[in-house]
Structures are given as structure tokens and as C-alpha cells.
Amino acid sequence: MERFCIITNRSKDEELAVTNEVAEYLKSKGKFVFVAQEECQCEKGCYTDVEKLPENIECIIVIGGDGTLLEASQDLQKMNIPIVGINKGTVGFLADIEAEDYASALDDIIEGNFRIQNHMRLDATVFRKTPDKKGNGARGSALNDVTITRYGFSRIMSTAVYVNDVYMTTYKGDGVIVSTPTGSTGYNLSAGGPVCDPALYSIIITPICPHSLTARSVILPADAKVTIKVDVSKKTQENEAVVSIDGEMISELSAGGYVEIKKSDIDTKIIKFKRTSFMQIISEKLGK
Fold first, then answer.
1. How many helices (H) and strands (E) does the chain have?
2. Is 238's pLDDT higher than 70?
3. Is the pLDDT of residue 135 over 70?
């Protein structure tokens, strides 16, 4: 690879110390480097101004945590450029290169000692009960998960789950997570859901704090269409739920509204190294 773009979360690398080290290291190897952070004039929460990205970039280097990589994947999802993450966050499942190891990882990329792993995404579309309400038809694409969670505090919400338009079950609790295998080690894991290898193509449905002794996660094939409908739980509360994509709210949802979720046609390409496996990462990150 010859042309690189670096995307940095300034809250993780405030003085751009790691960013500058990485950029200078690549330049010393004769590579083209574009530092997106220096050019970005986006609103808060956006790390990449896609319109300013030079042509023919071959690799995106994200410096931050998993959240930074998720944001970058949102910004760049239609560009089909492989992403690699240098971890300056906490756990680092996606950004799995530690900052002190960046040089050896970059050498592997330059020498071709890596593989590109396709990670499936989920497309979500919101349908509100009242069409003229703000947020009807809101759409988003998730690398990790789509969540439908209760709007207020200390009240249970009811969500009916349909798979391929066939009723499956109703969860009563704090909401529902619909996750990709990539997102299975995130909110899904915290809610008691199963861990799936991110190379898999499947959809995971996990209830959040269900008020039940029998409610469990369900793993579906990737071609399934999942519909989550918000049922009435309190007549005096107009907005019963909030719909979020990878942790970012895209819409409120009142009782009678629903979200349709299905596999995206676009994958996110993540650079992985031959010296590590998902089982090793699980052991290191979660086995302690």
C-alpha cells in the first residue's frame, strides 16, 4: 500500500503525538499520508470530511478507540477502503493495535502481511405511527448494533419482534439490541448476549434487562428481516422509545411505530494481522 489517510479522535490523542509519529513513520517509508484531522471542519462527532479525502487512498488508519473506528466506518461506509485501528481507547476490539506497536503493524501493512476481513453491517429504517412526526423514515447503517431503548426512566417498555414478517416474541424490559457479529462484544455482550466471531454473517437479537425468567437472545441468518414494534406501555407517555445506530440516536419512536432491520449491501473492510486471531483477542480483552 502506498497511500494512507489518518483519522484521529483528538480527545484520545490531544496533541496529535501518536498521529504525527505514525504520519512521519509512513513518510519515512516513502508513503503518501493525508491527516484528515488537520482538514476536518465537520460538526462535532464527525472525524472525516469525505469530500476532502484525496483520491486513491488505499488504507484508513484510525487512531482512537472502537467508537472512533465506528464513526469512521459510518463516514466512509460507501468508499470501500480498508480500515485499521490503533487503540488509544479502553478495550479495543476493533482498534486492536496498541499504540506502542504501531511501527511493526505498519511494516506488516506495507509488506502485505495482513488480511482484509469483511464485517457485515445492518441497515435500519424507522417508521413512526404518525407519518408527519419528525424522524419518520429515518435511516442508518450500523457496524455494531441497532438499539431500541425506553425513552424515560423507571418504566418498562414492550417490544414485539417479527422475523420475516412472522411474529416471534414480545420482550418487556428496557429494550432490544439487534447486533452484528462485530457488535456482539459490545452492548450485546453486556446485556448477556452471545459472542460471535466477526467473520460470521448473522443477526443477533438480545433483550435488555428483560422482566422475564425465559427471555433469551436469538441468532438469525444474515438474510432475515427483523422488525421491532413498540407496543403501548403507558398511555400518558407519547414517545416510548429511542432508536440508536452504533450509540447515536436517529429517532424517537412512539407506540405503534416500528423499525425494520436487515443486512446492508455494504460491508466494512477491517485489516487484520496473521499473528492474531479472534480467540486470542477474546482471551486478552475479556479473559482477565
1. 6, 19
2. no
3. no
Integer Cα distance of 52 and 276 in angstroms:
34
What pLDDT score was predicted for residue 77?
Answer: 87
Query: Which has the closest alpha carbon to 158: 141, 145, 175, 146?
Result: 175
What average pLDDT score do residues 196-213 get? 95
Nearest to 154 by CA among 235, 209, 228: 209
**pTM (two decimals):** 0.89
Which among 66, 75, 96, 174 is annotated as catalytic?
66
66 in active site? yes
Pick from 106, 114, 115, 113: which is nearest to 28 by CA? 106
In DSSP terms, 262 is beta-bridged to 123
Give residue for cell 421491532: 228
CA distance 86 to 23: 13
SS3 category, 208: strand
Burial 79-97 (b: 16+ CB within 10 A, else e): eebbbbbbbbbebbbbbbb
Q: Grid coordinates in use for 68?
A: 472512533
Which strands form 166-173's sheet, in the order they lie side by side? 139-142, 122-127, 258-263, 226-231, 157-163, 166-173
Write down all domains in the chain, each with its CATH number in brackets. 3-120+267-286 (3.40.50.10330), 122-263 (2.60.200.30)
Contacts of 136 (CB under 8 A, 6+ apart): 126, 127, 128, 130, 251
Is residue 249 pLDDT above 80, yes or no? yes
The three cell numbers locating residue 253: 419512536
